Amino acid sequence: MRNVLVVGGGAAGAAAAILLAEGGVSVELIDIKPDVSALGSGITLQGNALRVLRRLGVWEQVREQGYAFDSLGLRAPDPAGTLIAEFDDLRTGGPDLPATVGMYRPALARIMLDRAAAAGVKTRSGTTYTALDQDDTGVAVTFADGSAGRYDLVVGADGIRSWTRRMLGINLETHSVGMGIWRAFTPRPASVTRTDLYYGGPSYIAGYCPTGEDTLYAYVVEDARDRSTLSPAESLAVMRELSQAYHGPWDDIRAVLTDPARVNYTWFESHLLDAPWHRGRVVLIGDAAHACPPTLAQGAAQALEDASVLAELLLAHDELSDELWESFTTRRFERARTVVDGSLQLCRWLLDHERGDVPGLMNRISHLLMQEA
Q: Could you give the 3-state DSSP secondary structure of residue 167?
C-alpha cells in the first residue's frame, strides 16, 4: 500500500488513517460533514476499545478527558431507585486498562483527528466523491469539487448510511429495531460515578454514563416514534416527563436536565453485511458494514477493532490478496456478528417483556472481547 483514501472521519476512519500513516502509507481522509468533531453527545468506551486507542497513541488523552469506572449497577424503577445488583465489569482491554471510560463524543473525535494530522494524514472535511472506478491496480476517484486521485485502496468508513456501500451497488437493508432513545448531555451530579441501568417502568431502559469530572450523558429508551416534529423545548419536556419514573441518581440528573439544545432523539437501527466486506480494492468497515443498537455499548469498539485489524493486515502484506481478505474476514466477521446478535437479543427481551439473562449475556460477550480481535 502506497496510498489510501479513507472515507469518513469517525472512529473507524480516523483509526485506520492513523495506523496506516504511522506505517508509512500516504493517507487522505475525507468526510462530508464540515466539522466531524462537533457532533454527538456522550460515548461509552469499553476495555477492548481502550486497547485500540492505546495502540493509536491517544490513551493518555482519553484518560485525562474521560471518566473511568469498573462496575455496572442495576436499579429498580421504584420511588427510591433501589440498587438491586452491582457487577464488577470485566476489563476486556486487559488488567492495566479500566473496564469502561465514558467521555464527550466530540472530545474523542477531536483527539483522533488531531492524532491523524500529527501522523501525516491529509484531511478534507465538507467534501465527498462522485465516482469510484477501479481496475486491477488501483481506484480512480473523482471528488465533488472536480479534483481526482488514484489510490491503491479505498476504505469506506462512512457510517450506517454509507455512500461508499451504495456506490459499490451493495443493497443492505438497515432496519429499525423498534426502539427510540432520548439522549441528553448534562452536568454530572456527585451521585453518578458509573453507569447504572434501570430496566422496566414506563420505558424500556433509563440510564446514564459519566463522561468527565463535570459532565455525563443520560438516556431513556422508548418505543420508536416519529419525534421529528418536536421543537427542542418540546423534546426536553418529553425526556423530562419520561424520566419522572426513575429515581435515586436520576432525581439529581433531572434537576440539571434543563438545556433543550443538549437533547436528541434517534431510533435503534441495525444491519450486518455478509462477508466479505470488500469489493475489489474498496473495503467497508465500522457502521458501514455492521451496526447494532447500543445495548452492549460496542459500536465504537467494533469499529476501532475493524480499523486495527485491517491496518495490521495491510501493513503486513506486500499486496492485496485473497489471503489478506480471508484473514480479515476470519478475524472480524463472526466477532462482529456475535456483538450484533447479542445487542439485538437484549432488545428482543425488552420488546417482548421477557426476563432474559441480561448479566449472563453481557458476561459471555465480555469474555469474548477479552481476546484480541
A: helix
User: Which pLDDT value is given to residue 15?
Assistant: 98
Residues 160, 203 within the same domain: no
- Residue 361's domain comprises 3-69+100-173+270-370
CB atoms within 10 A of CB 4: 24
Sign, CA torsion 64/21/45/221: positive
Q: Are residues 181 and 311 in the same domain?
A: no
Domain count, the chain: 2
- Name the burial class of residue 11, with classes exposed (0-12), middle (13-18) and buried (19+) by CB atoms within 10 angstroms of its CB: buried
What pLDDT is attached to residue 37? Answer: 75
Dihedral (CA of 301, 303, 308, 309) sign: positive
Distance CA 190, CA 291 (A): 33
In the chain, alpha helices (H): 11-22, 47-55, 59-65, 105-118, 163-167, 232-243, 249-256, 299-316, 322-351, 358-370
Q: Can you list the residues of the chain whose pLDDT is less than 50? A: none
Q: Kindly list the distances between the CA atom of residue 283 and the CA atoms of 165, 170, 179, in Å, as whole numbers in the listed order.
A: 9, 12, 30
Tell me how far the alpha carbon of residue 156 is from its chain's centroid: 15
Q: Count Cα neighbours of 334 within 13 Å in the Cβ-side half-sphere.
A: 5
**Residue for grid cell 468533531:** 37
Crossing angle of helices 299-316 and 322-351, rounded to 10° = 170
* Per-residue pLDDT at 26: 98
Give the predicted TM-score (pTM) of the model. 0.96
223 and 330 inside one domain: no
Take residue 362 and report the three cell numbers written for it: 453481557
Nearest to 184 by CA among 41, 297, 37: 41
Q: pLDDT at position 40, please?
A: 79
Last residue of a domain, one of 206, 238, 268: 268
